[in-house]
Amino acid sequence: MSNKNTKSDTTEKIVSLSKRRGFIFQSSEIYGGLNGCYDYGPLGVELLRNIKESWWREMTYRENVEGIDSSILMHPRVWEASGHVEHFSDPMVDCKECKGRFRADQLDESDCGNKGFKGRKAVKCFEEGKFTEARNFNLMFKTHIGPLEESSSAVYLRPETAQGIYVNFNNVRESSRQKIPFGIAQIGKAFRNEINTKNFLFRTREFEQMEMQFFVNPEEDSKWFDYWKEQRYNWFINYGMDKDKIKFHEHEKLAHYAKAAVDIEFEFPFGWGEIEGIHNRTDFDLKRHTEFSGKKIEYFDDQTKERFTPFVIETSAGASRSFFAFLCNAYDEEEIKKENSDGSVSSETRTVLRFHPSLAPVKAGIFPLVNRDGMQDIAHSITDDLRKTFNVFYDDSGAVGRRYRRQDECGTPFCITVDSETLTDNSVTVRHRDSMEQERIQKDRLKEYLKSKTD
Fold first, then answer.
1. Parallel, antiparallel, or unpaired for β 271-280 and 260-268?
2. Rounded Cα–Cα distance for residues 445 and 375 (Å)
3. Where do the domains of the chain lie?
4. Among residues 217, 424, 205, which one has the least CA distance to residue 300?
5. Over the stretch 59-70, which tens digit does the pLDDT of each residue have?
6. 3-class SS of residue 392
7. Which fold, 7-73+148-327?
């Protein structure tokens, strides 16, 4: 039976475990940290890579989806055409007393730092006139190309990866000889100068997106919107998301370019939050880039002899948010019974990350039961052999039970122990993370066994 924690307790425990086990570190921590920026540690970078590779296989190992990797820096006109220069902004207000800055549309979610009002919702201070008038704040990071910081040299760090796909529509279609309907997928960094970052990895200033833009005949847009909505929901479920913690949220108010929009939301410890959006963006983006660039972005159907601007069905997932969601989904605590040396029974709390084996950063821990009788040599040999195919971890420090607990906190699905029986019959003990059950496997079958469990 899993323990029930308060939402704030669970968040704090996940943040603490993330640092202790090497998933997430505060960026530039030795200098006091940089707000809204995080570094992925040894286990974190493996988990993130596994998530991205699983998404990439799911989305691009298809006949009708191609992949690209577009530049972070793009021509400034791209962002004029997309509407980001004019519209990509949030309303910002300043507190006259504590000098803090807040999004005006999120005052009821933020705590104001005014003296005497610690923890008080900022909306109360706003109502009492402690804030400046709201003004728009553009979220794009601006920089310059070349030796001089002139207006003509200004460029932006991309706030999304989708525009790099749209401007390459003709290039990809012609080089790959794709026909409508087809998609273009991309994984890449994006940057948003958020007024307020919050909730650990949920809202940061630097993040990764996993996006696919699917180009369709306008007459088939609804069919493909429903198709990708189902496909993307099932991907999260197939990789271990709890069905009770994931849902669709239909947009009632649509963006000016959208015909339909739905979010896939996950129940984080702080509440429900978006982890992916599926949007029918119509032909807005391609027509805008045609208008601003002077280059036609159209499709000619050889069979119907029809020329049209495709509609775009977008699937846009945050790699960073998906990482956070999978981490929260995997986190669990359970009480287990322990028999003491005097025969009495006590209980202890086991903290475990129940990742899907395909996503787990480390696939197996390899232990010698004791450091004698050649068990270490056999365990090292197994480790060296498995490491050619899997990310595995060798550990001969401390009691085996303690080593199990360490790997539970890392989310390692299997622990392999070399013991006295190994010396006589070449079998090893394989312990399963979730059930804690054990079975004997011939050591020569371990690679085949792990492959069958982690594919």
1. antiparallel
2. 18
3. 7-73+148-327, 362-454
4. 217
5. 999 999 999 999
6. strand
7. BirA Bifunctional Protein; domain 2 (3.30.930)
Q: Is the pLDDT of residue 164 over 90?
A: yes
- CB of 285 within 8 A of CB of 161? no
How many angstroms separate the CA atoms of 212 and 164, rounded? Answer: 11
Q: How far is the C-alpha of 95 from the C-alpha of 116, rounded, in Å? A: 14
The pairing of beta strand 427-432 with beta strand 438-442:
antiparallel
Which of left, alpha, beta for 279 (phi over 0: left; psi -120 to 50: alpha)?
A: beta
Q: Compute the distance between CA of residue 454 and CA of residue 48 in angstroms, rounded to an integer.
A: 16
Mean pLDDT value across the chain: 90
Of 215-229, 301-315, 333-347, 381-395, the range with the lowest mean pLDDT is: 333-347
Q: Give CA–CA dist 136/449, Å, rounded.
A: 57
In 17-159, beta strands by DSSP E: 24-26, 38-40, 65-67, 89-94, 101-103, 135-138, 142-144, 154-156
Residue 156: helix, strand or coil by DSSP? strand
> What Rg value do the Cα atoms of the chain yield, rounded?
26
Task: Measure the CA–CA gap between 436 and 453, rounded to whole angstroms.
Answer: 16
What region does 353 belong to: left with phi over 0, alpha with psi -120 to 50, or beta? beta
d(C-alpha 122, C-alpha 107), whole Å: 5
CA dist., res. 269 & res. 180, Å (int) = 41
Question: What letter would DSSP give residue 349?
Answer: E
Of the two residues 421 and 455, the one the predictor is more confident about is: 421
How far apart are the C-alpha atoms of 188 and 201, rounded to whole Å? 16
Cα–Cα distance measured from residue 81 to residue 87, given in angstroms and rounded to the nearest whole number = 11
386's CB contacts (< 8 A; 6+ apart) are 363, 364, 366, 392, 446, 447, 450
CA atoms of 158 and 90, how far apart (whole Å): 17
pLDDT, tens digit, for every residue of 209-264? 999 999 999 999 999 999 999 999 999 999 999 999 999 999 988 888 899 999 99
* Gap between the Cα atoms of 246 and 236, Å rounded: 9
Triad 208, 213, 217: Cα angle to 5°: 170
AA identity, residue 386: L
What tokens does 52 get?
């991205």
- Protein fold of 362-454: Rossmann fold (3.40.50)
Contact predicate 364/415, CB 8 Å: yes
Q: 239-256 as b/e, with b when 16 or more CB fall inside 10 Å?
A: bbbeeeebeeeeeeeeee
Cα–Cα distance, 255 to 259 (Å, whole number)? 8
**Buried b / exposed e along 74-89 (16+ C-beta atoms within 10 A):** bebebbebbebbeebe
